[in-house]
Amino acid sequence: MFKRRTSRVRQRRQVKVLRASVMSPRIFWHDFRRAVFSLIRYTLLAALIVAAGWGIWLGVQKGLLKNDEFRIQHLVLNDNPAIDEIRLLEVTGIDLSGSLFDCDPDKIRASLVALPEISNASVTREFPGDLVIRVKAREPFLWIACEQLGVPPRGRDRGLMIDRAGRLFPCPEGDFDSALDLPVMELRNGGEALVPGEKLVNTDFDRLLRLYRVAEEMLPEASGWIDSIRLHKDWGCVLTTRDGIEATFGHGDLERQMGDLLAAMEHAREKGDRIATIVLVGRRNQPVTFHEVAPPRAIPVEEAQLQPEPESAGQADLRQLLER
């Protein structure tokens, strides 16, 4: 058979390359001098770069870092209940005798925000010598108590607080007096651990909070009127007021139950009674007990001492006759 011709012709060429290395003393000396001169040139260039860097570093040290003009002259901290100047230095490690350049704003802010009682912070360096720090403390909303976790009921001195965002934190010393008027949420169990700085995740708290929200909507002064709220078995909550009322609520229809409580209190006040306990679960039958009202005390009046009447003439004669 005949092979079909194509227009492409493949040609194989073999190219042989001859490499020859020629060496002589003169060529060796020339290459050696060129290598030495290159090494010296690069060494001098590196030395110049190092010297320039050293000079710049000394200039920065002398002109900025060790310059008395840039030392910390004023530490400005905004007025807040969470942290004072002494604790600020302990937490952040700021050296008051150091330079403003030694202060890293990001690190200082991170150390402040890590505190559970602080929600936000800002740090700025205002040259030549002012370090300005502004912190925002968490606002107390409610007390949290859980006996199983070592926080006793009504233990406002050792309890944790929670803000409206649901974050736990220890009560700042500057807020302690005003926070004493806030209600206590008494948890039956801890659920997840109560960790300061973390968000509270607890089913008991969610139920108690729903009741408190309703009280806030219907009674403007609820925060100062309610002393504590705790769960009652599995079907309700017990709300205790600061004037000694224990009101038992179911978990549903809270608006109606709160309205019944306020109406019952008003009715008892008009009659001069004080409610002790009331169960608001039912719509019609709502058992109520009252505090004993002490009867008015009688003020003892000293009896008037009667003056003896003067004797008549006949009575005097009869007395003398009897005395014989």
Level-1 CATH class name of one domain: Alpha Beta
State the CATH architecture of one domain. 3-Layer(aba) Sandwich
Radius of gyration in whole Å, from Cα?
Answer: 46 Å
Q: What is the molecular shape? A: elongated
CATH topology of one domain: Rossmann fold
Q: What is the strand arrangement across the widest sheet?
A: 6-5-4-7-8-9-10-11-12
Mean pLDDT: 81
Order of helices and strands: HEHHEEEEEHEHHEEEHEEH
What is the H level of CATH, i.e. the homologous superfamily of one domain? Cell division protein FtsQ/DivIB
Which regions contain 5 or more consecutive residues with pLDDT less than 50?
A: 294-306
Describe the protein.
- By secondary structure, the chain is α/β, with parallel strands linked by helices.
- Among the domains are: 70-137, Ubiquitin-like (UB roll), CATH 3.10.20; 142-290, 3-Layer(aba) Sandwich (Rossmann fold), CATH 3.40.50.
- It contains eight helices and twelve strands.
- The chain has helices spanning 25-65, 85-92, 105-113, 176-179, 203-218, 222-225, 254-271, 313-322, and strands at residues 74-77, 118-126, 130-137, 142-146, 160-162, 168-170, 184-187, 226-232, 236-241, 246-250, 275-279, 288-290.
- It starts with 24 loop residues before the first helix and ends with a helix.
- The model is unreliable at 294-306 (pLDDT under 50).
- InterPro entries: FtsQ, POTRA, POTRA_FtsQ_type.
- Keywords: Cell cycle, Cell division, Cell membrane, Membrane, Transmembrane, Transmembrane helix.
- It is found in: Membrane.
- Pfam families: POTRA_1.
